[in-house]
Structure formats: C-alpha cells, structure tokens
Amino acid sequence: MNDATVVRAVDARKSYDGTVALDGVSLDVHEGEVFGLIGPNGAGKTTLVRALTGTADAEGTLELFGDAAGDSDRSRIGLLPQEFGPPERLTARELVAYYGGLYDESLPVDDVLADVGLADDADTWYENLSGGQKRRVCVATALVNDPDVLFLDEPTTGIDPAGRRALWGLLDSLADSGVTVFLTSHSMEEVERLADRVGLLRDGELVAVGTPAELVAEHGGPARFVVAGPDVEAGADPLRDAGFAVEVGTDELVLGDVTPAELGDAVTALADASVGYESLTWTEPTLEDVYLRLTGETFEGTFTPGASAVGAAADGVAGDSDSAPAAEVER
Where does the secretion signal sit in this chain (predicted)? Predict the structure, then answer.
C-alpha cells in the first residue's frame, strides 16, 4: 500500500424522495489498500459504492484515480454489485468470457476461473451451480478485466467457509500487487480479517474510520467474563462484593472489564458462595462489538455479542481462529 489516493469522496450526499442515503460522507482510499465498509441495512453502503463507481449520481466530490467517478477509465474498475443476475443458460466459462469481451484487454478466462475455485465447474450452466458457486462466477466477472480498483458489495454471500477463505487469500494477493479493494460486508470476521482500514456507515453518515485494532480499542468496550447457568443469578451479589461490576441477564451474569489475572478471583467468589454454573467464557472485544455499539443494534436475549458460550453470532458468522481469543471452561 502506498500514499497514492485511488478512491476519494468529499461531502458526498444523496437522497431518495426525501430519505437521506448519504449525509456528507468523506473518505480517501489508497493504492493497494483494502478498505472495509460496514453498517446496517439501509445505512447507505450500496449507494456509496454506486456513487463512487459512477453508476449513480450524488452531490459532492467523488473521484477515482483523480478523475470524476463518472469519467474514470472503466477498464480500470472491477465492480461486483450486491445483486447480480447474469443469463442462467450460459456456462461459467461463457459468462466470464462474455464480460472479458467487453474490454480491449482481459485476463485468460480459465485463469480467472481457477483463481475463484471454479476450474472444475467451468462448463456447468450457471443455473445448475450452487449459490456459492454462482457468487464465485460473479466475482470472476469483476476480476476478468484485471482492474486496478475493485469494488465488492457483499462478495462472499452464500460461499462456504473453505471457498470464503480461498477468496480472502485471492484478495490479499491482489492488494499485495497494488490493487485497491473497496469491500462492503455484514461479516465482521471478514472485514476484520481483510481490511487495512474500516469505515462504519450509519444513517448515511460515516461515524468512524480506522484500522480494526484502532476501532476495537476506541469503541469495542472492555473484555467480558460470562457466567452461564440456570441459577447463576445468586452469584451477582457475591461477585459485586468481590469488586466486580455485574450485569444480570437471562441465565447469565456478565462481568465487565475483567483481566485474565482476575478470572480466578471471580471463580473463587462463586465457589465461596456455593453458586454453580454450566460454563464460563472470557472474551476480548471484536469488530462485531464496535458495530453493535456504534449502530445501537443488539442481540436478543444476551448482553454479550461475540461470546461463543452465550449467544448466536450475527449474520450467520461464527467465531474461529481469526477471532479474538476466548477462554471457555465447562463444568
């Protein structure tokens, strides 16, 4: 990544029939940078992508490579929209070849299909591919012109975990080669894994921008220790007496700002009060916590998004080895 600005927005504004979609958005994205844009449905993410690629009008300054977005060289841009429905009675190879034919120069079709993991399914009709395979074909159509900037709106929707990780590796390689990637996603795991910087859009406003680590440090909140079980409420007062801040949830106690060194003290306080539990979970904050705090969204039935023992993950995304460390003890 270098300091050359590839994508630029200054005071971008857009409304639809009186509804504000973009409200003064300003940002710069540099050559070779992966920029992740997150936010709730309706926050304006897709509108911003369309404005930056010149496929929708907006007020303000919107530039690619120093030119007005609508006047930029289209051959240098790869775009994967959130919704994309190509002809279904074409094979994967035919579809990618068709989109490659729209440019004066393009990459070898078979190479692009191999890059997205479809070498063995290149001659399968689009309509007979799985949902994840269809999405990979769509990614291939955005790559076939060998773009210098790549806009991906929810690129891994429907792709299985192995395919998703393979695509992440491909995007890493593209960024390392100098391609700028502008990514929108509801997968906080994906954004935290890929993005050099992240912007959070809420109600058309860019409310936070920074590296994932910076956003987690500033907005993620403290580490949490969760005591789960049907009768754990009895442990609230003993834990408070031991100096812990405790919130009582449904069959759980949530202790905020607990360091690993303090875990033993909490367990001892429970044992001294003869309070049983089914599980103990300690988690550090993640980008998911940042998202929930800044958007005001919550999970039903839990104080502790991101804690594997007490709640389901948002948007079908489960934690794994790339997530923040979690310590869990079962009794």
Answer: none
